Amino acid sequence: MSKRSGMANGATKDTGSSSAGKRTPSYSLNTASPTNNPPAQDKQAVLLNAQNPGHFSLMRAYHLADFITLMNGFCGFMSITSSMRYCINPTDTGKLWLALGFMPFGLFFDFFDGKVARWRGKSSLMGQELDSLADLISFGVAPASCAFAIGMRTALDQLLLTVFVVGGLARLARFNVTTGNVPKDSTGKASYFEGLPIPTSLTIAGLMGYWTYQGWLQDQIPFGTVAQGTLLEVHPIVGLFVVHACCMISRTMHVPKP
């Protein structure tokens, strides 16, 4: 989940504080300060709202932490394409190991972007949105793609994997709009996550890594299939993704923040 969301949520209040305990000063492009002098304008806000910002204004508007977040999305997409390449040649398990290996690197960048944002005192609502979008790719679509690649390919398998991805999407959207309402400690840090954070899907990725190591792929997936030859043919193990989706969207499950 985004480490920068609390900082970004405070961008409209002088008294707001972030989940990391950093205060984010407010700014407005259309109002003047009490002394009738224009307030200091954030460079990113100026570039994003300017009528004629010039070439590559979006890239120039990014903070360093935003570029690190993009690396998270890069790792997620590389994982997805590696799964696709394994589907083309199922004898090349090296592609499957690449698909699994890119996900932890995505987690590293997901963790590191928040550290950099706090270090530089730079955060934004755009950074919060980037973080959630990258998380969906790396910890939602990538694990589901890997599950499909290793053999969970029946129609019902695909439907249940879609439930997992959509659950992650809903969880991230809810996080973005409700993170400011989560109780915080004296430093402004949120005390818990509401529902499982989507990066915890790497536990399932780790399990798939063990299956790959054991050679339990395709027809050898643990627990096999049920209702073979029917429209309801499914791998029971895909239920792990459904359970994880339910935990992500739960409002009653509170996971303490480390």
TrEMBL record:
<dbReference type="Pfam" id="PF01066">
    <property type="entry name" value="CDP-OH_P_transf"/>
</dbReference>
<dbReference type="InterPro" id="IPR000462">
    <property type="entry name" value="CDP-OH_P_trans"/>
</dbReference>
<protein>
    <recommendedName>
        <fullName>CDP-diacylglycerol--serine O-phosphatidyltransferase</fullName>
        <ecNumber>2.7.8.8</ecNumber>
    </recommendedName>
</protein>
<keyword id="KW-0443">Lipid metabolism</keyword>
<keyword id="KW-1208">Phospholipid metabolism</keyword>
<dbReference type="GO" id="GO:0005789">
    <property type="term" value="C:endoplasmic reticulum membrane"/>
</dbReference>
<dbReference type="GO" id="GO:0003882">
    <property type="term" value="F:CDP-diacylglycerol-serine O-phosphatidyltransferase activity"/>
</dbReference>
<keyword id="KW-1133">Transmembrane helix</keyword>
<keyword id="KW-0256">Endoplasmic reticulum</keyword>
<dbReference type="InterPro" id="IPR048254">
    <property type="entry name" value="CDP_ALCOHOL_P_TRANSF_CS"/>
</dbReference>
<keyword id="KW-0808">Transferase</keyword>
<keyword id="KW-0444">Lipid biosynthesis</keyword>
<dbReference type="InterPro" id="IPR016271">
    <property type="entry name" value="CDP-diaglyc--ser_O-PTrfase_fun"/>
</dbReference>
<dbReference type="InterPro" id="IPR004533">
    <property type="entry name" value="CDP-diaglyc--ser_O-PTrfase"/>
</dbReference>
<dbReference type="InterPro" id="IPR043130">
    <property type="entry name" value="CDP-OH_PTrfase_TM_dom"/>
</dbReference>
<dbReference type="InterPro" id="IPR050324">
    <property type="entry name" value="CDP-alcohol_PTase-I"/>
</dbReference>
<comment type="pathway">
    <text>Lipid metabolism.</text>
</comment>
<feature type="region of interest" description="Disordered">
    <location>
        <begin position="1"/>
        <end position="41"/>
    </location>
</feature>
<keyword id="KW-0812">Transmembrane</keyword>
<dbReference type="GO" id="GO:0006659">
    <property type="term" value="P:phosphatidylserine biosynthetic process"/>
</dbReference>
<comment type="similarity">
    <text>Belongs to the CDP-alcohol phosphatidyltransferase class-I family.</text>
</comment>
<dbReference type="GO" id="GO:0006646">
    <property type="term" value="P:phosphatidylethanolamine biosynthetic process"/>
</dbReference>
<keyword id="KW-0594">Phospholipid biosynthesis</keyword>
<comment type="pathway">
    <text>Phospholipid metabolism; phosphatidylethanolamine biosynthesis; phosphatidylethanolamine from CDP-diacylglycerol: step 1/2.</text>
</comment>
<feature type="compositionally biased region" description="Polar residues">
    <location>
        <begin position="12"/>
        <end position="39"/>
    </location>
</feature>
<keyword id="KW-0472">Membrane</keyword>
